[in-house]
Amino acid sequence: MAPIPGAGLAKGLAVTLRTMTRKTVTEQYPDVQPELPPRTRGVIGLFEENCTVCMLCARECPDWCIYIDSHKETVPAAVEGGRERSRNVLDRFAIDFALCMYCGICIEVCPFDALFWSPEFEYAETDIHELTHERDRLREWMWTVPAPPALDPAAEEPKELAAARKAADKLAAAQAAAAEEPTPGESTPGESTPGEEGPA
Ligand code: SF4
Ligand code: SF4
């Protein structure tokens, strides 16, 4: 069958018309910030207080882009006659985001919850060396880590929360007891102070 003259043009115009009436999907970034899912893998934050320098993340990283330096310190015995202990002290923790492939293995394997995903992604640099984020920068990313999702109402209270609540209750009880104790020199109601005469 011979082609109808102008059919191709009509087909093209039909596509144009259909597209013109559809809702636009173009993101006006950077004027408008994109709405990212909470589990976006943007950058990795380090909560170094939780890090025990176990090196697991550095060993498991497929790109070998986690650099950790540490030294050992001796901790004196907690009780007299006890044994001294040694612990690792973190000297350097850095991630080279020029090499990182955002697989998340380091975060998965960290047994001490010291690494977290942050959805922040605006850290492009003109110098590739600047993409190696040292521990201070990795710590700063922690402020951008979203809060964990709410617990299921029927779920058991997490062990950490229960322990923290118990400690807080104990502290509050100790403070209340201390506040009730009379301070030296202060008389309790019904008790006469030294030198004060009772009724004859
Ligand atoms: S996300 Fe993957 S590649 Fe990146 S630092 Fe962690 S383990 Fe290495
Ligand atoms: S796995 Fe976790 S605790 Fe161990 S060195 Fe890495 S960040 Fe620190």
Automatic annotation (TrEMBL):
Domain of life, per lineage: Bacteria
Amino acids binding [4Fe-4S] cluster 2: C61, C100, C103, C106
Binding positions ([4Fe-4S] cluster 1): C51, C54, C57, C110
Membrane topology of this protein: Peripheral membrane protein
Cited Gene3D superfamilies: 3.30.70.3270
Cofactor dependence: [4Fe-4S] cluster
Subcellular compartments: Cell membrane
Recorded catalytic activity of this chain's protein: a quinone + NADH + 5 H(+)(in) = a quinol + NAD(+) + 4 H(+)(out)
Cofactor note: Binds 2 [4Fe-4S] clusters per subunit.
Main location: membrane
Enzyme class: translocase
UniProt xrefs under InterPro entries: 4Fe4S_Fe-S-bd, 4Fe4S_Fe_S_CS, NADH_quinone_OxRdtase_chainI
Keywords on record: 4Fe-4S, Cell membrane, Iron, Iron-sulfur, Membrane, Metal-binding, NAD, Quinone, Repeat, Translocase, Ubiquinone
Chain segments carrying region Disordered: 149-200
Listed SUPFAM superfamilies: 4Fe-4S ferredoxins
Residue ranges with Basic and acidic residues bias: 156-169
Pfam families: Fer4
E.C. number(s) listed in UniProt: 7.1.1.-
Bias type Low complexity, positions: 170-200
Subunit structure: NDH-1 is composed of 14 different subunits. Subunits NuoA, H, J, K, L, M, N constitute the membrane sector of the complex.
Its biological purpose: NDH-1 shuttles electrons from NADH, via FMN and iron-sulfur (Fe-S) centers, to quinones in the respiratory chain. The immediate electron acceptor for the enzyme in this species is believed to be ubiquinone. Couples the redox reaction to proton translocation (for every two electrons transferred, four hydrogen ions are translocated across the cytoplasmic membrane), and thus conserves the redox energy in a proton gradient.
Record family assignment: Belongs to the complex I 23 kDa subunit family.
Protein name as annotated: NADH-quinone oxidoreductase subunit I
Organism of derivation: Streptomyces aureus
Lineage: Bacteria, Bacillati, Actinomycetota, Actinomycetes, Kitasatosporales
